Amino acid sequence: MAPVTLGAVAAHFGRDLDRGVSKVVGIIESAARDGVDMLVLPDACLGGYIGDFAAPDPDDPPPALDPDGPEIAAVIAAAGPMTVCVGYAEEAAGGSRYNAAVCVSGDGVLGRYRKVHQPAGESLTYLAGDRFDSFDTPVGRVGMLIDYDKTFPEAARTLALDGAQIIAALSAWPASITDRASRLPADRQSRLFDLYDCARAAENQVVLVSSNQTGVMGNLRFLGQAKIVGPGGDILCTTRSKGGLAAAKVDVENEIARARKVLNHLTELRSDIYRVRR
Question: Which Gene3D superfamilies does the record match to this protein (predicted)?
């Protein structure tokens, strides 16, 4: 497969759904002009995220969207030949919702994901997903994670073992709410966000495309720091704490093959020895 241009977005998305759809479509169109082949937008960019971990406002939940509804259809129509990952709240039975992501091209839906790991009080707003799956796309085999999922090595490892060459990590990842720093780059969560991105790529020897929200929602201040990480854990490009697009041309197959040439972490696993204890 030829080299592809991968793009990760850092931007603010609020509760205004129509404005969010228009902004997503505009970003896709701009990325297409820049020759981007795969674009990863943040978690909750269609309808916004919750504004408080501990006590989400029950009167202001993210809008629950039909996964086959007009908002996703608008993203599909804008995508054309591009592979696009976008985050939203997926409608569930009983008026609830999942924190979800969908990967599309102009041909339709390529893959879906519902966030599995839930921090703090997120379960007051969202149901939890129950599986990790990779899927084929025009840019290679892809798996998706949503923010807190990347904290758990098992999540990315499951996708890599399912053949994922690229992990799309969509986030609405805020600065620390218990130990705020005066500057975002000095924030503890800022350091962890980058650490997890690099570790998940390096330990699985895959390419990781990490998006994130910016700005403020309720009492959460989002970090940005969208980036592309190579299979050696090296950051190829980043927006840092500002909004924007991090884009890099990557020969995904060759870079993964080079990383695994001597030490192949997936084939050298000793899963017969490992035990998961809780």
Answer: Carbon-nitrogen hydrolase (3.60.110.10)
